[in-house]
Design brief:
This protein is α/β, with parallel strands linked by helices and about 160 residues long. It has a single domain, classed as 3-Layer(aba) Sandwich (Rossmann fold). It is built from 6 helices and 5 strands; from the N terminus they run E-H-E-H-E-H-E-H-E-H-H. A 3-stranded parallel beta sheet has the order 1-2-3, with helices on both faces. Strands 4-5 form a two-stranded parallel ribbon. Helix 4 links the parallel strand 4 and strand 5. Pathway: Cofactor biosynthesis; coenzyme A biosynthesis; CoA from (R)-pantothenate: step 4/5. It is an enzyme of class 2 (transferase).
Length: about 160
C-alpha cells in the first residue's frame, strides 16, 4: 500500500519526521509530497526543502520513502500516483477541524480517496514550521524542534 504525506515543510520539523517514520513502518511506500504553491512566499526554496527532507529521511534509513513535488490539487496528484490514501498529522482539535473539511472536499473530488490522521507524538504536538521560523528569527534555540541540518540552514537564512 502507498500513502502520500503532503505539505509545505517550510522547514521540516521533528514533528514531520516523526509522522514520516511512523508512516514508513505502516505502509509499503511513503511519498512525501511538497506542494508547489505560487501564491505563498516560503522561507526556503523548493530545492532547499527537498534537500532538508532528503537529509532527514536518509539519516533515519527510511528506504521506502520518496520525495516528490506537485502543483494543483492533491487529488490529481493522488490519481497520478495511483493511490487512494493521504496521511495528515494532527497536533490538536484545531488541526482536526481544518483537516476534516479538506478530507471531505478531497473525498468528494476523488471517490474512494481516504485521509488517515496520525496524532502527533506529545513531545512534538506544539511544534509547527511557523513556530520554528518565529523562534529562529529572534535567534532562539530551535535544536529541539528540527534536525541539525535544518538548524544550520535556518541559521544561514537568519544570518546568525
Amino acid at each position: 500500500m502507498k500513502v502520500i504525506y503532503p505539505g509545505s515543510f517550510d522547514p521540516p520539523t521533528y514533528g514531520h519526521l516523526d509522522i514520516i517514520q511512523r508512516l514508513s513502518s505502516m505502509f509499503d511506500e511513503v511519498i512525501v509530497a511538497l506542494l508547489v504553491n505560487g501564491s505563498k512566499e516560503p522561507l526556503f526554496t523548493l530545492e532547499e526543502r527537498i534537500e532538508m527532507i532528503r537529509s532527514d529521511v536518509e539519516g533515519h534509513d527510511l528506504k521506502n520513502v520518496t520525495i516528490k513535488t506537485f502543483d494543483g490539487l492533491m487529488v490529481n496528484f493522488a490519481k497520478e500516483e495511483d493511490t487512494t490514501i493521504i496521511a495528515r498529522g494532527l497536533r490538536g482539535m484545531a488541526d482536526y477541524e481544518y483537516e476534516k473539511n479538506i478530507a471531505r472536499v478531497n473525498g468528494s473530488l476523488y471517490e474512494g480517496l481516504e485521509t488517515v490522521f496520525l496524532l502527533s507524538s506529545p513531545k512534538y504536538s506544539f511544534i509547527s514550521s511557523s513556530v520554528v521560523k518565529e523562534v529562529a528569527s529572534f535567534g532562539g534555540d530551535i535544536s529541539s524542534f528540527v534536525s541539525d541540518d535544518v538548524e544550520i540552514k535556518m541559521k544561514e537564512k537568519y544570518k546568525y
